[in-house]
Amino acid sequence: MPKKHYTTPNAPTPIGPYSQAVAAGGLLFVSGQIPLDPESGKVVDGDIVAQTHQVVKNLLAILKEAKMGPENVVKTTVFLRDMNDFPKMNEAYGTYFGKEPPARSTIQAAALPRGVSVEIDIIAAF
User: Fold this and answer.
1) CATH number for the domain including 31?
2) Taking CA 19 as the corner, what is the angle to CA 17 and CA 21, rounded to the nearest 5 degrees?
3) Per-10-residue mean pLDDT for the chain, 126 residues long?
């Protein structure tokens, strides 16, 4: 099965040996994004709401590079540093996916890269 890799300067450069996104079998697998500003490479200031908005903006930039949008997303996984942040994350997240949101799992992680509060990865369908 052929694969295609997607990269955009409008999302953070990977901080490890992984691709921003890989397409295979009609699906796009987008690596977990944390709340990094793509221009500065630094974690955005703010609470879980600000961090969630930045993460989703990063994900949408990668989707756009693949000529996709939030309507193509079929599954997300949200990793939270603290499950007490769930209500505020959920409210911010919910502003992006409309009336038919994707399937989602949310888990509390023991730790996330760079000490951030949230990381999200997605799977989208072409």
Assistant:
1) 3.30.1330.40
2) 160
3) 96 94 98 98 97 98 98 98 98 96 98 97 98
Q: Alpha-carbon distance 15 to 1, whole Å?
A: 27
Number of domains into which the chain is organized: 1
What domain range is 109 assigned to?
4-125
Cα–Cα distance measured from residue 87 to residue 81, given in angstroms and rounded to the nearest whole number: 13
8 Å CB contact between 42 and 33: no
- Identify the three-state secondary structure at position 82: coil
CA quadruple 31, 35, 36, 38: dihedral sign: positive
**What local confidence, expressed as pLDDT, does residue 1 receive?**
81
Q: What is the pLDDT of residue 51?
A: 98
Which of helix, strand or coil describes residue 35? coil
Whole-prediction pTM value? 0.97
pLDDT at site 24: 98
Planar angle of CA 76, 11, 32, nearest 5 degrees: 30
> Residue 23 belongs to what H/E stretch?
strand 21-24
SS3 of 28, please? strand
